[in-house]
Amino acid sequence: MKFICGPMATISHPAFRILIEKFGGCDEYFTEMINAGSLLNDGPFEKYYVNPAPVPGKVVWQLTGTDRARMAEAAKRLVELPGIGLDVNMGCSAPDIYKTGAGIGWMLRPLEETREMIRSVGEVISSYNKSHPELKESGMERRFSVKLRLGDEDFTEEGLFAFCDMLVENGVKLLTLHPRTKKEKLARPARYFYCQNLAERYKKEGVSLYLNGNIKDSASASYAAGLCPDCSGIMISRAAVQKPWIFRELKKSFGGEGEYESGCESELTVDMKQLCLDYIKDVEVYQPPEFWKTRLQRFFTYFAMNFTFGHYAQTQFINASDNQDLIERIEDFFAKCPEERFKKL
Q: How far is it, in rounded angstroms, from Cα 318 to Cα 326?
């Protein structure tokens, strides 16, 4: 079973990957959505989105956009970058994304429109792999994947399978399914049986299936894996922000499969104060100043929940006026709550 860090806006950047790697890392890191138009227009911030640090070989570039031609052109740039491959986002259900036709919007369009986009992007990846035969010899051909949901509220199982068949027919080798509809929130149980159904459907075709949704600890991961024995990976997003060591915990639970580093079973003490301060420094290195505040606010919204007085810490940290103010607030918090500083894993 592989463990994957999911794509999250304002989170899935090098500073966050550095943090996860401190606890042993995971198998793959999906980037936050890279907008095809902005990439092709050489926007001032695009160099930050395409930085593969610190583990280029584990990165999956996630592409979003509304125009078929631009998606294909952007794919030509992304496929040249180091990493595992390229993923098309068809799972984002944020209204400001899908109303433009991006994200899950691609699942709601006429099927032929989406087919043409997938075919175009797939041809870019296939052409790149054919022109680099050494990649096949080393098992490093660029992978084509799609992250998706069940569809709109009126989706049908027949329609979902037909849609996924279209993806596979056009070269997609991995599907990551968040088994909820466009409007369903986290309170609605994830319908994992759809992940297993798709995994079974494409097992003989060499197409893999990752499940995504509601995985927050070893117990929930084991539960999902038990329901989906043919799935080859578990993707975790928000829970990894709150607990950057979650992949370490999962390696303990799923260990013995030969793909994980030894030592995960040993106890580890985390200096939570130093972790916070180091993360701020890494954000300053790997993100432009214009992004510092929003990136840090999003991170501490989740990470602060580790503390006994989590809501107090969250309020203090996300309301900081700038990074120096945030550092001072962190120092003050641990001075007032010294028992929160060291956490044993």
A: 8
Neighbours of 93 (CB within 10 A): 19
Could you tell me where the DSSP H helices lie in 41-187? Answer: 46-49, 68-78, 95-98, 105-108, 111-131, 133-137, 157-169
b/e map of 169-185 (b: 16 or more CB within 10 Å)?
A: ebbbbbbbbbbbbbebe
- The pLDDT of residue 185 is above 90: no
Check if the beta carbon of residue 88 is closer than 8 Å to that of residue 107.
no
Distance between CA 130 and CA 134 in Å, rounded? Answer: 9
Measured from the Cβ of residue 164, the count of other Cβ atoms closer than 10 Å reads 22
- Distance between first and last Cα of the chain: 22
Instruction: Report the DSSP beta bridge partners of residue 29.
Output: 5, 59
Q: For residues 343 and 345, what is the distance between their CA atoms, to the nearest angstrom?
A: 6
Alpha helices in 192-322 (DSSP H): 193-202, 218-227, 238-242, 246-253, 272-286, 289-303, 310-318
Tokens linked to 184: 């369903």
Per-residue tokens: 322: 């700038």
SS3 assignment, position 72: helix
Range with lowest mean pLDDT among 32-46, 75-89, 226-240, 256-270: 256-270
* Cβ–Cβ < 8 Å for 55, 17: yes
Whether the Cβ atoms of residue 182 and residue 93 lie closer than 8 Å to each other: yes
Mean pLDDT, range 49-70, rounded to an integer: 97
* 3-class DSSP state of 127: helix
Do the beta carbons of residue 36 and residue 61 sit within 8 Å?
no
pTM of the predicted model as reported, rounded to 2 decimal places: 0.95
Report strand pairing: 34-35 vs 2-5.
Answer: unpaired
